[in-house]
Amino acid sequence: MHKHPQHRLLRWRTGAAALAATLAASALLAVPAAQANEPSDPPAVQQMPAPAPGFPLPTQHTQQAFDPASDFTSKWTRADARQIMAQSDSTVAPGANSMSPDVTMPEIPQDFPAMNDDVWVWDTWSLTDENANQISYKGWDVIFSLVADRHAGYGFDQRHWNARIGYFFRKTNADPAKDKWNYGGHLFLDNTSIGNTEWSGSTRLMQGNHVNVFYTATTFYDVAERNAGGGGIAPDAVIAKALGNIHADQNGVTFDGFQHTKLLEPDGKMYQTKAQNAGFAFRDPYTFVDPAHPGKTYMVFEGNTAAKRGDYQCKAEDLGYRPGEPHAESVTDVQNSGAYFQTANVGLAVADNKDLTKWSFLPPILSGNCVNDQTERPQIFIQNENGKNKYYLFTISHQFTYAAGMRGPDGVYGFVGDGIRSDYQPMNNSGLALGSPTDLNLPSESPEAPTPNQNGRQFQAYSHYVQPGGLVQSFIDNVNGVRGGSLSPTVKINFRNGVSQVDRNFGRNGLGPFGYLPTNVRVGGEGLYK
């Protein structure tokens, strides 16, 4: 099994060729069917942060596993999320980074390169198998991204309702520090997908040359109006898949033959519908198999707790304070703050047939009610620790989607337990695993209009995707006022026992190559490896 070159991914200098050779020689050894992801390296310290004076203790979580079909839903509580501020430095100068370097992404240079001159690129994922191994197909690495036309006349922030899934490929033995990804175009033919816009998902290589693309099918009814600066009709959203074929030769990679199937739409009982909330979230399907439940395929996705918007009542278990906690909030005060508008959850579904065309909802595995309103692009990362599989649930969220009284950066949030459905322990006690540099002492903002008082890189990267070995890929949004639309430098987080640490010995001061998504399993023969 491949381990990424740890603690020394180049230090770049003149070692780019050496890195390429290392990857070609050692990183692409055939891997048997995995029972867990390729693990990350352990952090230097594996103890949870100590309690901070003046803040409540986090909720006690057992990490205990439950049957995936049971009705237990773990809670990311306000007591947990307040640990983010407890671990933030209140004495930094305005606009500095107030968080620990252990959970802060290194600063991206302002003169970052464009990944492609014709399309903006954001949410990105790899060609994988059911165990989240990243697949090299016949000597080509393949990734999938949401893309939008840079030259169509609309702006970067209008990309969401013009999004299509595009794909990129490059030779597996390419030098990731200098060889660009080749853009293959839109994955699906025009007007063939379900809906008029394609949002994030995941792509699995099936038997032979078949691929299943799980994606969010969104339908906007006012695209032209939105592109002109107006709009406001809520879109429809369903989870869909497309079964097609991948082909590769000496010239590159192509796809064809896609047949689209609608899989799931929210039920209004566990997962909020458009009728209940025009701003509902139902997206980002990620499928996988669980070694603890052979023969079953599961899906995690982003959802919201079912209820008419504004009807949710914050509960004591959403707050999660220990009995007698002197720094606890009252349920009444939290409810009166309007925190009930934030009802994020991570949903779970199970496939009912081997073709993966029929699925059934299961109860959410995590809720952030009265804490946050978005738990986007969830992933399950299974890592063996001391002879036992530990299940890491990673998700991403924005600072501006937190509930009243809560504060946190754009970035990766993680939770660890003993199974898919667990009493998840938030990583680092707070949930925060990797954030963009942010001064949490200042009010939250959005990337479209940040104030000049904040850290100029508070929105530098988003839509993080955790890869085997703890590598983390994201896209560039706003670096000190320069808007992005390209893939960020890959970073590396080391994590064990629910504690994470940014590896600043990786790459150059913690930043690896831009758009580095290395494969660890080869499929389809020698191809271009020779």
From TrEMBL:
InterPro entries with a match to the protein in the record: Glyco_hydro_68 (IPR003469), Glyco_hydro_beta-prop_sf (IPR023296)
Sequence segments annotated as region (Disordered): 35-69, 427-454
EC class name: transferase
Pfam family of the protein (one): Glyco_hydro_68
Family recorded in the similarity comment: Belongs to the glycosyl hydrolase 68 family.
Signal peptide per UniProt: 1-36
Protein origin, superkingdom: Bacteria
TM region(s), chain numbering: none
Keywords: Glycosyltransferase, Signal, Transferase
GO molecular function, one term: levansucrase activity
Organism lineage: Bacteria, Bacillati, Actinomycetota, Actinomycetes, Micrococcales
Biased segments, Polar residues type: 59-69
EC number(s) on file: 2.4.1.10
Record protein name field: Levansucrase
